[in-house]
Amino acid sequence: MQDCWLREINCWKCGEKILWSWAFGARPGRRRALKIDVDEGKASALGVALADINSTLQTSLGSSYVNNFINGNRVQRVIVQLDAPFRMSPDDVKNIYVRNRTGTMVPLSAFTTVKWIYGSPQLQNYNGFRPTNSSARPFPKSTGEAMDAMEKMVRQLPSGIGLEWTGQSYEERLSGSQAPMLYSLSSARRVSLSFRAV
Q1: pLDDT per residue as tens digits for the range 102-116
Q2: 137-142 long-range contacts, Cβ below 8 Å, gap at least 24?
Q3: What is the pLDDT, as a whole number, of residue 13?
Q4: Computed over its alpha carbons, how large is the radius of gyration of the chain?
Q5: Between β-strands 20-26 and 133-138, what pairing exists: parallel, antiparallel or unpaired?
Q6: Would you say 51 and 115 are in contact if contact means Cβ atoms under 8 Å apart?
Q7: DSSP characters for the chain?
Q8: Range of 118-132, 143-157, 184-198 with top mean pLDDT
Q9: Distance CA 54, CA 89 (A)
């Protein structure tokens, strides 16, 4: 359960062009986290070591690397974790067992309590400013046209709100001005190759 918003933007128009089929953005702020409290006294009384509890939780809810095996001519990793349906809700912790010193399986629910809490906020800065990240899929136009329309829309917003591209969009903008030069170089190379072939 993350503190974020999901917005459907169907047929939103910037001029006459359909811009996005959907957009997603994350609001910075407090995040919900699942907290598992371990009663060390009860665990010790049941003969369960804290290291075993941590290892069991890591393997069950996260994952653990076991080893490699050879499958044909490929070396593949063996990763162990609970199947997704068995680790989807906080109640699933009740069904996880850990081995005690005598070899008996003890349920985690015997010495743990599970609850949702609010964790510390995730604060991100981008060039010294607090951003709101968003992702979108252009529909039905190209990404370049969608990015142009987004820049046009941001220019209409009040001062103090800006837009910067990151990741693949940034690379696309960076290389966009180089396209004519790269095309001419590839054409010249093709002409020289065909000239040599004749």
Answers
A1: 999 999 999 999 998
A2: 137/20, 137/21, 137/22, 138/19, 138/20, 138/21, 139/18, 139/19, 139/20, 139/21, 140/18, 141/17, 141/18, 141/19
A3: 44
A4: 27
A5: antiparallel
A6: no
A7: --SEEEE---S-EETTEE-EEEEEEE--S--EEEEEEE-HHHHHHTT--HHHHHHHHHHHHS-EEEEEEEETTEEEEEEE---GGGSSSGGGGGG-EEE-TTS-EEEGGGTEEEEEEE-------BTTB---EEEEEE-SS-HHHHHHHHHHHHHTSPTT------HHHHHHHHHHTTHHHHHHHHHHHHHHHHHHH-
A8: 143-157
A9: 18
pTM, two decimals, is 0.50
What six digits make up the tokens of 141?
A: 């136009």
Angle between the N-to-C axes of helices 143-155 and 167-176, in degrees from 0 to 180, rounded to the nearest 10: 100
Range scoring the smallest mean pLDDT among 63-77, 93-107, 136-150: 136-150
